[in-house]
Amino acid sequence: MLPPRLSRLVDALGGRATRDAMRQAIVARCAWKEMRPAHLAQYLSRNPTWVVNAYLRPMLQEGLLEMVYPHIRAHSLQTYRTTPKATGEGT
Length: 91
Prior knowledge:
This protein is mainly α.
């Protein structure tokens, strides 16, 4: 079951969330449990392609997220998790 804090965070996003609010929700969700792109999009009530292009790829490049299977990008079980940089533990 999703922790109440994460439920409230997503409920607060609404239909036109800010970029920072979306990124915060992604970091929080991936810190709690690794997520597949399609499941993350469903959690955020957004289009999966848009989530990947607008958020996941840039956050990967910034070092905020990492792939569980980095050497096999198209792995059927590919999930994303936060990095210490995203949670403030790597600074």
